[in-house]
Amino acid sequence: MTVRREVPLRRSLLVRLLSISLLIVVCAIVTAAWLATRGATRAIEQAQGQALSDDAQVYDTLVGYAADHASWDGVDGLLTELAGSTGRRIVLTTLDRRLIAQSSPSDQPLPARASATVDPLRTDPVLRPSTSETIDARAVGPFRLTAAERDQLHIDAQAIVRCLEGRGVRAVVHDTPSGRPVLNAGDDPKTQEHLRSSCSSWLLLNHTPTEARSFAELDTAVNDCLRDRGLPGAQALDMFVWRPHDGAIAPSAEHIDECVAEARRRQLQPFVAPAALLFTHSPSTSSRTEFALSDDDVVRIIAATGLVLAVAVAATTLLATRLTRPLRALIAAVRGPDGRWTPVPATRRDEIGLLIAAFNDLAARREQAEERRHRMVNDVAHELRTPLTTIRSWLEATQDGLTTPASDPALTALLLNETLHLQYVVDDLRDLAAADAGKLRLNPEPVRLADVLEEVVAAHSGAADAADVTVTWWTTGSPVVTADAVRLRQAVGNLVSNAVRHTPPGGDVTVRGGVDAGEVVIEVADTGTGIAPEDLPHVFERFWRADKSRSRETGGSGLGLAIVRQLVRAHGGEVEVTSTPGIGSTFTLRLPATDTPAP
């Protein structure tokens, strides 16, 4: 069985484990980043909202101060109070950044950009989004009522309130920045009708002398502005309200509004503080935003953490199940009730699949080795049983007095041959055991191939003559091989002996040597019975014989060819065989050539 070694990258167990780990890590990172971003964004929004609210409070308070004072003198105490309530450092400077006042001294430089410009005549719509009027309502300037005018209007207002209460209408009096009292009785139509038709409410609608004088000045300034623009004048309808005069050419409402705003600013300018730059910032040099997690944030974090944990546990469980299922199958196969390995289907294409295939291959080779071991034991027992039985039978006959070695010389020869056969089997088994254990000792040295072949053929000439088989040898050139001369003679001798045994009388055995493609080649060819094609793969197996009846008529231990292969491989070579039934066989040994001359 061949186990495929390559695993596609997409099916690799390592890639899958890394993918699952990366997925869990990415989910954890994304979740943590999302929670951190959400928390930080919420904290920043809250901090910015609080800072904007504090800045708006500071700005509105300072605009009110500027609207009610002609200068910034005495604003220090107000800045200190605002700094204490908002926790921010407040600095006022002129438009050219000369210090006017600050809530607390500091070496910290001012920001490059001011938080706002404090000017009651041109308010910031961002910090005061609730009104579209750019001139602060608290900037009244010459329209501020005198004490006498305020007192008289309050007397009139109280009288109107009592009158309305007598009619079942509840009204509240509050003062405007100029000191004028205003009634607030709600938006009910009946209440508004009472205000217009009874209780002398018109007393609060008349202009006081201060207001009339200031309004007249303003009206003149508005019309002067329109005429400077080449436009006809406008008619005043009410406080700060003008409309164009009837005529073909009349100023637009936009022009009138611009002139009203310009005239009001010129009129109010002497009564308000000059424009100033406002700087508000944290008194700490650290720019970090400190925040604490809310209960909702804690719940979200716990929920997200639990979700990531659940995903991680589910992914790990799924992966562990997929990994351990084939491993459990392997364990069950190893612990089979009959002690035999049951192949596990290798359906996976990852490392686990390779492991299963390797186990199946190992188990198959183990069973084959076990079968070879049993077969080898049986073959060894068979090889030893025959000579031992023969020796025992003749020894028992001698003991019973039926024959004696002295009276029967053939008996002595027979017992000697059987003993030699036992010796051959034992020696061959010892050589194979040493080769299998890697303990086969070799003494390599440069050897003339012709000398080896001559000695082998001479050693087997007697057996060849007895079998009426002709053995010849020759070499092409003078090849030299680095080898253990004794072991090389043993290998070639086994092939020659095998060829003589399987060649019928009158046949030929040819031993040839030479060099081919950088290798020393030794061929032993015979004209024997040959080997069937289906038997060729088994000829080098131990105790294998083409004669399935295990007849020992041809001699041999059944280990010679196995020893040849082990000896040749120990020399770094290889042995192969070709055969044609009825014509003969050729065994070829290929050994590495050497340039070292033989002694």
UniProtKB/TrEMBL annotation:
Gene3D superfamilies: 1.10.287.130, 6.10.340.10, Histidine kinase-like ATPase, C-terminal domain. Residues 321-371 form the HAMP domain. It is found in: Cell membrane. It holds the Pfam family HATPase_c. Keywords: Kinase, Membrane, Phosphoprotein, Transferase, Transmembrane, Transmembrane helix, Two-component regulatory system. GO terms for cellular component: plasma membrane. Its EC number is 2.7.13.3. It catalyses: ATP + protein L-histidine = ADP + protein N-phospho-L-histidine. The chain crosses the membrane at residues 12-36. It is an enzyme of class 2 (transferase). It comes from the Bacteria. Residues 379-595 form the Histidine kinase domain. One of its GO terms (molecular function) is phosphorelay sensor kinase activity. This is histidine kinase. It comes from Lentzea xinjiangensis. The lineage of its organism: Bacteria, Bacillati, Actinomycetota, Actinomycetes, Pseudonocardiales.
